[in-house]
Amino acid sequence: MNHSKTLLLEAKKRSESRFDLHHLEEKLMISPLKKLMFKYFEFRIFKRLLSSLDVNLTGKRVLEGGCGAGYGIEVISNYLRPKEYYAFDLNKGMVERSRSVVKRKGLPVNVFQGDVTEINLPSEKFDIVFIFTVLHHESKWRAALKELNRVLKPNGLLIINEINSRSLNWFERYAKVYHPKTAHFTWNMFRYELNQAQFSILKEYLFLQDFGFFIGQKKPTRK
Asked: Can you say whether the dihedral through the CA atoms of 129, 68, 43, 108 is positive or negative?
C-alpha cells in the first residue's frame, strides 16, 4: 500500500472516533478569522433571529456546548450578562484556551471538560443552550440533542448552527477532512431529529443552503 493510501485510511479511521479534530479545523477554531466570523457573522444572525422573536434573554442561565477557543464566551457574556454561564468542550486543549479567556477577561464562567451526549449537570437547569458547529463531529448527535433538551428548563431555547451533508462531502472530497458518516445530515433530517428530541423550531435561516441557524424551543412535557 502506498503512502497516500495509508494516510487516507488513517484519516477515515480517525473520523470514526468521537470528536477527533482534524488539524486544519483546529487551526481554524483558534484563528483570529474564526473569532471575527463568530462575532460579526454568526452571532449577528442569531441576534437578528432572536430580535424577531421579541424575547428578553438577559440575566438568564446559559450553557454553551463545544465552547472551543472561548470566542463565544466573550461575545455571549457581553451581550446577555447571564445570571450563570457554564461552558464545556470535549477537547482538553480547547477547555484550557477557554479558561484562559475567562481568566484574562475576568468573566464569571464555569468552564469544564465534558461530553455533549452525557452532560454532567442537573436536568432543567438552563434557560438557554448555545451549540455552534459541534454536532457534525458527533456520531451520536441524536443522543446529544436529547441531552441538550434534558438540561433545558421547560420552554427553554436551543440556539444552534450547523453544516449539512453537502458541505461535509465537499470537505471530504477537496480538503480530505473527514467526519463521522452518521453525522452527515440533510436539513430535512435535522429538522426531523430536532422534533424527535422534543424541540419546536421557532426560527431558522439557511446561508447558501449549507450553513444553518436554528432557534428551537423545548416542548412542554406530555402528561
From this structure: positive
Could you tell me which of 137, 134, 139, 148 has the C-alpha nearest to residue 199?
148
DSSP state of 222: P
Residues 58-95: b if buried by 16+ CB within 10 A, e if exposed: eebbbbbbbbbbbbbbbbbbeebebeebbbbbbbeebb
Q: Which residue has the cell 495509508?
A: 6
| Structural contact between residues 194 and 207, judged by C-beta atoms closer than 8 angstroms | no
The pLDDT of residue 4: 42
Q: Alpha carbon of 31 to those of 38, 68, 78: distances in Å? A: 11, 11, 21
CATH classification of 3-218 is 3.40.50.150, yes or no?
A: yes
Q: Where are the domains of the chain?
A: 3-218
What pTM value is reported for the model? 0.88
